[in-house]
Amino acid sequence: MDFKSIKVLLADDSSTARQIIKKELIQMGFDDQNIRDAADGEQAINFLGKTEFNLIISDWYMPNMDGLELLKKVKADGRLKTIPFLMLTSESERERISEAFESAADQYIAKPFTTAPFQQT
Length: 121
Hints:
Elements: E1 8-11, H1 15-28, E2 35-38, H2 41-48, E3 55-59, H3 67-76, E4 85-89, H4 94-102, E5 107-110, H5 116-120
Parallel strand pairs: 1-2, 1-3, 3-4, 4-5
Helix pairs in contact: 2-3
């Protein structure tokens, strides 16, 4: 699969996590120029209003607007709701995983992670 043209929005309050995920995506073949990173859900919403993305990867716990709230806003927006949404977090409780899927997350990835879930989307 050619990932070069896929535009990714990566939301995580940890700059280190964003750097690691971005590096992994680039190694998989994503174009560095097509990966935009946001420090929280509010910044992600701002970017979504300006750019069309093909994939959203979001951490669960972030300040200002967490990943679950971001997910709900994306899936409630007719223009954005079809964008695949990967929830990324260290959270592994079944109840939280269920909550993400009930809110229409396309994939749930627990930290530490491998690149396999990214390739399934």
